[in-house]
Protein backbone atom coordinates (compact mmCIF):
# COMPACT_ATOMS: atom_id res chain seq x y z
CA UNK A 1 0.00 0.00 0.00
CA UNK A 2 1.28 3.46 -0.94
CA UNK A 3 2.09 5.71 2.02
CA UNK A 4 2.34 9.38 0.94
CA UNK A 5 5.47 11.25 1.94
CA UNK A 6 6.30 14.91 2.51
CA UNK A 7 6.36 16.76 -0.81
CA UNK A 8 4.31 14.17 -2.70
CA UNK A 9 1.53 15.37 -4.97
CA UNK A 10 -1.37 13.01 -4.35
CA UNK A 11 -4.83 12.49 -5.83
CA UNK A 12 -7.38 11.79 -3.05
CA UNK A 13 -10.98 10.60 -3.14
CA UNK A 14 -13.56 12.55 -1.16
CA UNK A 15 -16.91 11.02 -0.32
CA UNK A 16 -19.98 13.03 -1.22
CA UNK A 17 -21.51 15.14 1.53
CA UNK A 18 -25.05 14.60 0.21
CA UNK A 19 -26.66 11.56 -1.43
CA UNK A 20 -27.01 13.28 -4.83
CA UNK A 21 -23.36 14.37 -5.09
CA UNK A 22 -20.72 12.40 -6.97
CA UNK A 23 -17.51 11.13 -5.40
CA UNK A 24 -14.82 13.70 -6.13
CA UNK A 25 -11.06 13.54 -6.41
CA UNK A 26 -8.70 16.36 -5.48
CA UNK A 27 -5.00 16.99 -5.86
CA UNK A 28 -3.07 17.88 -2.71
CA UNK A 29 0.55 18.30 -1.70
CA UNK A 30 1.64 16.53 1.50
CA UNK A 31 3.22 19.10 3.83
CA UNK A 32 3.72 17.10 7.03
CA UNK A 33 6.75 14.91 7.57
CA UNK A 34 6.81 11.13 7.98
CA UNK A 35 7.17 11.35 11.78
CA UNK A 36 3.89 13.30 12.06
CA UNK A 37 2.15 11.07 9.51
CA UNK A 38 3.18 7.81 11.25
CA UNK A 39 2.44 9.03 14.79
CA UNK A 40 -0.98 10.55 14.06
CA UNK A 41 -2.10 8.36 11.14
CA UNK A 42 -2.95 11.70 9.49
CA UNK A 43 -1.20 13.98 7.03
CA UNK A 44 -1.26 17.76 6.70
CA UNK A 45 -2.01 18.70 3.11
CA UNK A 46 -2.68 21.78 0.97
CA UNK A 47 -5.03 21.57 -2.01
CA UNK A 48 -3.86 22.21 -5.56
CA UNK A 49 -6.29 23.99 -7.88
CA UNK A 50 -6.09 24.49 -11.64
CA UNK A 51 -7.02 28.15 -11.37
CA UNK A 52 -6.67 30.38 -8.32
CA UNK A 53 -6.63 34.08 -7.54
CA UNK A 54 -3.26 35.76 -7.31
CA UNK A 55 -2.29 35.81 -3.63
CA UNK A 56 0.89 35.81 -1.53
CA UNK A 57 -0.53 32.65 0.08
CA UNK A 58 -0.60 30.78 -3.25
CA UNK A 59 2.34 29.06 -4.92
CA UNK A 60 2.18 28.23 -8.62
CA UNK A 61 3.69 24.89 -9.56
CA UNK A 62 6.55 25.26 -12.04
CA UNK A 63 5.94 24.32 -15.68
CA UNK A 64 8.24 21.29 -15.38
CA UNK A 65 6.07 19.83 -12.59
CA UNK A 66 4.18 16.56 -13.21
CA UNK A 67 0.90 18.42 -12.63
CA UNK A 68 -0.16 22.00 -13.20
CA UNK A 69 -1.92 24.29 -10.78
CA UNK A 70 -1.54 26.44 -7.71
CA UNK A 71 -0.98 25.31 -4.12
CA UNK A 72 -3.44 27.03 -1.76
CA UNK A 73 -1.33 27.33 1.39
CA UNK A 74 -4.06 29.04 3.42
CA UNK A 75 -6.17 25.87 3.18
CA UNK A 76 -3.79 23.59 5.10
CA UNK A 77 -5.78 20.63 6.43
CA UNK A 78 -5.09 17.54 8.49
CA UNK A 79 -6.68 14.44 6.92
CA UNK A 80 -6.65 10.68 7.12
CA UNK A 81 -5.37 10.26 3.58
CA UNK A 82 -4.89 6.48 3.70
CA UNK A 83 -8.69 6.03 3.73
CA UNK A 84 -8.98 8.32 0.69
CA UNK A 85 -7.30 5.90 -1.73
CA UNK A 86 -4.20 8.04 -2.38
CA UNK A 87 -2.65 7.92 -5.83
CA UNK A 88 0.88 9.30 -6.36
CA UNK A 89 0.91 11.95 -9.09
CA UNK A 90 4.32 13.56 -8.62
CA UNK A 91 6.51 15.44 -6.19
CA UNK A 92 7.20 19.13 -5.56
CA UNK A 93 10.76 20.38 -5.46
CA UNK A 94 12.49 21.04 -2.14
CA UNK A 95 12.28 24.79 -2.81
CA UNK A 96 8.51 24.71 -3.45
CA UNK A 97 7.97 22.59 -0.32
CA UNK A 98 10.08 25.06 1.70
CA UNK A 99 7.86 27.94 0.48
CA UNK A 100 4.69 26.07 1.48
CA UNK A 101 6.08 25.25 4.94
CA UNK A 102 7.26 28.86 5.39
CA UNK A 103 3.76 30.19 4.64
CA UNK A 104 2.16 27.59 6.94
CA UNK A 105 4.50 28.41 9.83
CA UNK A 106 4.13 32.15 9.23
CA UNK A 107 0.35 31.90 9.50
CA UNK A 108 0.51 30.61 13.09
CA UNK A 109 3.45 32.58 14.46
CA UNK A 110 2.67 34.66 17.52
CA UNK A 111 2.48 38.30 16.56
CA UNK A 112 4.49 40.77 18.61
CA UNK A 113 1.43 42.93 19.28
CA UNK A 114 -0.06 40.29 21.59
UniProtKB/TrEMBL annotation:
One MF annotation (Gene Ontology) recorded for this entry: DNA binding
Name of this protein: mRNA interferase MazF
Species: Saliterribacillus persicus
The UniProt record lists the keyword Nucleus: no
Gene3D superfamilies for this protein: 2.30.30.110
Keyword terms: Toxin-antitoxin system
Sequence similarity: Belongs to the PemK/MazF family.
GO terms (BP aspect): mRNA catabolic process; rRNA catabolic process
Keyword Ribonucleoprotein assigned: no
Amino acid sequence: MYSPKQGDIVLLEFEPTAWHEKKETHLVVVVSNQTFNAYTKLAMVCPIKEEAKDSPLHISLPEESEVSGTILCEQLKSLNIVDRNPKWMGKVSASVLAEVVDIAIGSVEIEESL
